[in-house]
Every structure is written in C-alpha cells, then in structure tokens.
Amino acid sequence: MLHLALTGNIASGKSTVSTMLARHGATIIDADQLAREAVAVGTPGLEAVVDRFGAGMLQADGSLDRAALRRVVFHDAAARDALNAIVHPTVGRLREEALAAARTRGDRVVISDIPLLFEVGLEHAFDGVILVDAPAPVRLERIVQTRGLPRADAQAMIDAQWPSERKRRDAHWVIDNEGDLATLQARVDSLWTTLLTLPAGGPLPQRVPTADTTP
Ligand SMILES: CC(C)(COP(=O)(O)OP(=O)(O)OC[C@H]1O[C@@H](n2cnc3c(N)ncnc32)[C@H](O)[C@@H]1O)[C@@H](O)C(=O)NCCC(=O)NCCS
Ligand SMILES: Nc1ncnc2c1ncn2[C@@H]1O[C@H](COP(=O)(O)OP(=O)(O)OP(=O)(O)O)[C@@H](O)[C@H]1O
C-alpha cells in the first residue's frame, strides 16, 4: 500500500484535489472530517470543548457551534493550541483505524488529507507528501466568496498556518492551483499516472520539482 499525505493551506484546493484523486481510485482519509467526528454530539471531545470554551460554543440542538469556536480560536493562538490538544489525539486515532481498514481491504493508494501536516510535524509518517498551493491573495478571495466570511476573519485563518514557502521545500510533489479547474484536473491526472508507477511502500524520489506534475 502506498500511503501519501495531501496537505496545503486553507482554500488551496486540497478537497478539490482529493475528490479528483478519489475518482481515480485513491482511498481518502480526511482529517477535517475526522476532526468533526471527534467533537460530534455525545463525544468526550465535545464535552472537553465546552469545559474549556464554555456552553456558548453549543447550538440550541446541543451540537458544536463551529462559527462561534472559529471566531475564538483564529484570533487567539493559545485558544487554538488548547483546541488542537483536545481534537488532534482523537483525529490521530481515527486515522489509524481508517488506515487499518484500508490495509485489510488491500487498497493500493491511500491519501491522508491533513491540513496541518507540517505544523504538527507529521510529514515523515508517510511514503510521500503532496502539497497543493495557491497564492495567499487567491486563497483569501476563495474563503470570502465560498464561506461568506469577513475579510479579517479569512485573513486570520490564513495567518494561523505556516506560509506555504516553508512547506514547498519539503513536499515530494507540489500542485499549483492558481488557475482554472481544468488546469488543476490535468495536473492531478499527471500526478496520478506518476503515482501508479511507484512501488508500494518503496523509496520515493526526494522532492520532485513542481514542473514534473505540470502537463
Ligand atoms: C475551529 C473549527 C471549529 C472551525 O470550523 P469550520 O467549519 O469553520 O472550519 P473547518 O473545520 O472546515 O476547517 C477549515 C480549514 O481551517 C483550517 N484549520 C482548522 N483548524 C485549524 C487549526 N487548529 N489551526 C490552523 N488552521 C486550522 C484548515 O485549513 C481547515 O481545512 C474547526 O476548524 C476545528 O475544529 N479545528 C480544530 C481541529 C483541527 O485542527 N482541524 C484541522 C485538521 S485536524
Ligand atoms: N482552480 C480553481 N478554480 C476555481 N475555484 C477553485 C479552484 N480550486 C478550488 N476552488 C474552490 O475554492 C474553494 C476552496 O477549495 P477546497 O475546498 O478544495 O480547498 P481546501 O484546501 O480543501 O480548503 P479548506 O482548507 O478550507 O478545507 C472551493 O469552493 C473550491 O471549489
């Protein structure tokens, strides 16, 4: 089994790329989705969030008020660390479970979508790392347009992550996503062709240049 990490800063296009890779047949393990499960109604995770941040973080139906928590943690690094400490261990455990299931099924290519891969120092736990990137102003516009957030809130989310320049150096493949979706699809198709030539679990070339993924 080839197990790769897919990462990239907020609104770089990770989910779009992972959907394209899934259509090619990859198994996707999505950390944002696992993070939602970690704080679902009735979990110790949600209880811990309420203990730390107060009952104001709940909606009337008892589920997490994500917008309320977002407004707190993206303007306060200590609060963000506290939330990460609650959520990340559960996300790690759920990822291991999903990975074990993929192994049992005999899946060929498994891709773990992990937004904070480099920030949490997980990059060496995989056979290789795919980074999706787009310039910060493009990402800012995407957040404002698709999430309908105020510009300052969108910028705070961008500022909560490492600049991508630092991540590009350590990725095996960089997919630039500054253009249209057809260009992105062509880049993902090209990457998939490359992935199929790799030995499962074998050594990967170190840091393949961006041009290699550009058709
Ligand atoms: C703060 C929360 C409730 C906001 O929810 P919301 O629905 O608005 O955003 P969503 O979960 O879709 O995340 C959107 C993007 O924000 C970025 N992001 C999320 N959490 C963090 C964080 N702790 N630090 C930096 N960036 C983050 C990621 O790029 C992510 O893809 C949520 O992001 C959360 O629970 N974050 C903590 C868990 C976490 O670290 N998730 C990231 C993957 S494990
Ligand atoms: N090349 C593109 N052209 C136009 N829109 C795009 C392109 N790539 C992504 N988008 C749009 O930008 C938004 C963000 O993309 P996506 O959700 O894939 O990013 P992400 O990196 O997974 O973001 P997040 O960190 O918030 O989970 C989506 O609405 C998506 O449809």
From TrEMBL:
<dbReference type="GO" id="GO:0015937">
    <property type="term" value="P:coenzyme A biosynthetic process"/>
</dbReference>
<protein>
    <recommendedName>
        <fullName>Dephospho-CoA kinase</fullName>
        <ecNumber>2.7.1.24</ecNumber>
    </recommendedName>
</protein>
<keyword id="KW-0963">Cytoplasm</keyword>
<keyword id="KW-0418">Kinase</keyword>
<dbReference type="GO" id="GO:0005737">
    <property type="term" value="C:cytoplasm"/>
</dbReference>
<keyword id="KW-0173">Coenzyme A biosynthesis</keyword>
<keyword id="KW-0547">Nucleotide-binding</keyword>
<comment type="pathway">
    <text>Cofactor biosynthesis; coenzyme A biosynthesis; CoA from (R)-pantothenate: step 5/5.</text>
</comment>
<keyword id="KW-0067">ATP-binding</keyword>
<dbReference type="Pfam" id="PF01121">
    <property type="entry name" value="CoaE"/>
</dbReference>
<comment type="function">
    <text>Catalyzes the phosphorylation of the 3'-hydroxyl group of dephosphocoenzyme A to form coenzyme A.</text>
</comment>
<keyword id="KW-0808">Transferase</keyword>
<dbReference type="InterPro" id="IPR001977">
    <property type="entry name" value="Depp_CoAkinase"/>
</dbReference>
<dbReference type="GO" id="GO:0005524">
    <property type="term" value="F:ATP binding"/>
</dbReference>
<dbReference type="InterPro" id="IPR027417">
    <property type="entry name" value="P-loop_NTPase"/>
</dbReference>
<dbReference type="GO" id="GO:0004140">
    <property type="term" value="F:dephospho-CoA kinase activity"/>
</dbReference>
<comment type="similarity">
    <text>Belongs to the CoaE family.</text>
</comment>
<feature type="binding site">
    <location>
        <begin position="11"/>
        <end position="16"/>
    </location>
    <ligand>
        <name>ATP</name>
    </ligand>
</feature>
